Amino acid sequence: QLQFVESGGGLVQPGGSLRLSCAASGSTFDYYAIGWLRQAPGKEREGVSCISNSGVITNYADSVKGRFTISRDNAKNTVYLQMNNLKPDDTGLYYCSIRTAYSNILACPPGDFGSWGQGTQVTVSS
To answer: Mean pLDDT, to the nearest integer, of 2-28?
Structure first.
């Protein structure tokens, strides 16, 4: 069973950038598609982006397309989320998770992902 440690969050002004990292422990990291999800107060959990086990296939929520880029380094057991042109609506707790189902292969529905860790907080505010 993989365990994740997310990092890289913080307070940033609108228009700024952050790079999140999701480091996994375990020898089967490259077996799994991984997703980044976020939870904001008063909002439903949202699948932000997800990436196939090889890194070839990526998907993004419409709200982040063109601004966020997901990538992975299987040699380092790490998935990244580069976030540019951040907006206040991007504020939330970001966490990564293993994809356990494929209800929609063109998206990252939160229900398709397993349990999550402590996450990393992203706050976009002036």
So the answer is: 95
